[in-house]
From TrEMBL:
Keyword RNA-binding set for record: no
One Pfam family named in its UniProt record: DevR
Protein name: CRISPR-associated negative autoregulator
Keyword Lipid biosynthesis tagged: no
Keywords: Antiviral defense
NCBIfam families with a match to the protein in the record: cas_Cst2_DevR (TIGR02585), cas_MJ0381 (TIGR01875)
Protein task: CRISPR (clustered regularly interspaced short palindromic repeat) is an adaptive immune system that provides protection against mobile genetic elements (viruses, transposable elements and conjugative plasmids). CRISPR clusters contain spacers, sequences complementary to antecedent mobile elements, and target invading nucleic acids. CRISPR clusters are transcribed and processed into CRISPR RNA (crRNA).
GO biological process: defense response to virus
InterPro entries: Cas7/Cst2/DevR_bac, Cas7/Cst2/DevR_sub_I-B/Tneap, CRISPR-assoc_Cas7/Cst2/DevR
Organism annotation: Crocosphaera subtropica (strain ATCC 51142 / BH68)
Entry's transmembrane regions: none
Length: 286
């Protein structure tokens, strides 16, 4: 059976403006939102998160990625515009699509579905409409003022990967190494810095094809809890032996409960990443 990796991340709490306005000079930048019950929550797209992982791979393994972003020219460059998942880790992990017609106007599209699946990031806290204002330098007129929606919150998202679906299953380790090093996620970072690295993390390495750990973190006072994850382990729907839990959650009553149930609980995120890499079997079944 194939081995699967599921990772749920909750970021630190900070003031976020992870939105995409129409540009750095936009006069209005709204946050993306979803409604849950009677409240609205802000959200960051899976594409924005994938961009952050692409950036990390570009910076640390430039020789192994096909698509690179040039911030000076504000454009992407390709080593091979026909793509090659055998050669390039980004074509393998994230997939590609080259839509085109052949000389007879028939479909000649080449594509590969990305092996890595990423959920939307959802804020842990409801959004109450916070807005900040700014203005351009120099002479002012009626177009000088801009406003930006901001949200003081933490974000939660989940990733799924089946290493045997990769052309090179060893590349799953590169993804795990990128998790604590992810940097720019979302837009508007000309004005804001927001950490998207894990403050707490749950890693599940399993032959179960269903993750079970999506949305397992919730806000508890000023901290974060994971009562649903504790319950899943207690009722044995998720075997304790398949889990690694790490970060600030380790110092909470939830971390202590999980440890008493046999879950591997670590205080350090990077220590957990090393342990998860050790659980991987690099078989190729696809």
């Amino acid at each position: 059976m194939s081995q699967h990796i599921f990772v749920t991340v909750v970021t630190p709490t900070a003031v976020a403006a992870n939105n995409r306005g129409e540009g750095d000079g936009s006069t209005l930048s709204t946050l993306q939102k979803i409604t849950r019950g009677n409240d609205q929550y802000t959200t960051v797209s899976a594409d924005a998160i994938r961009w952050g992982y692409r950036e990390r791979l570009q910076n640390y393994q430039p020789e192994n990625v096909n698509r690179t972003f040039d911030p000076e020219a504000d454009k992407y460059n390709f080593k091979d515009e026909k793509y090659n998942a055998e050669t390039y880790i980004d074509d393998d992990l994230f997939g590609f699509m080259d839509a085109k017609k052949d000389k007879d106007n028939k479909d000649a599209t080449t594509k590969r579905r990305g092996a890595l699946e990423v959920s939307r990031a959802i804020s842990l806290d409801p959004y109450w409409g916070d807005i900040v204002f700014g203005s351009k330098g120099g002479k002012k007129d009626n177009k000088s003022i801009h406003n930006t929606e901001v949200h003081c919150t933490a974000y939660q998202y989940t990733m799924a990967l089946t290493p045997s679906s990769l052309k090179d299953p060893e590349r799953a380790k590169f993804l795990l190494e990128a998790i604590p090093a992810i940097k720019h996620v979302g837009g508007n970072h000309a004005r804001f810095l927001y950490e998207f690295r894990p403050e707490s993390i749950v890693i599940r390495v399993t032959e179960d094809p269903s993750p079970w750990i999506l949305g397992c973190f919730e806000r508890v006072g000023e901290s974060v809890g994971c009562s649903r994850l504790v319950r899943l382990v207690e009722v044995k729907d998720v075997p304790a032996s398949e889990l690694i839990v790490a970060g600030e959650i380790a110092d909470t009553p939830y971390g202590k409960q999980l440890k008493s149930l046999g879950v591997e609980v670590k205080r350090g995120i990077k220590e957990a990443i090393i342990a998860a890499k050790g659980m991987l079997k690099m078989e190729v079944t696809a």
